[in-house]
Amino acid sequence: MCSYCTSGDPPGGGLVSAPWRSVRSIQEIQLRNGTTAFETWKNPPPPIYMQFYFFNVTNPDEVLKGLKPFLEERGPYTYREYKSKENVTFMDDGKFVSAVTPKTYVFVPELSIGDPEIDLIRTVNIPVVTVINMAKYSSYKTFLMEALLIFKAEGLFTTRSIHELLWGYKDPVLADIHLLNSNVDEYFGLYNKMNGTDDGDYLFHTGKVDYKNFTRVLEWKGKKSLDWWTTASCNMINGTDGTSFHPLITKNETLPFFSSDICRSLYSTFEQQLSVKRIPVFRFVLPSEVFANVSENPANSGFCVPSGNCMGSGVLNVSLCKQGAPIIISSPHFYQADQKYIDDIEGMHPNKTNHETYLDINPLTGFLVRAAKRIQVNVYIEQVTGFHQTGNVQSLVFPIMYLNESFLIDDLSAAKLNSMLLQTEVITAVPFMMMGLGILFGLIFIILVFTNRNVEKEGSEAERASLLNT
Question: Per-residue pLDDT for 9 more than 70?
Answer without folding.
Answer: no
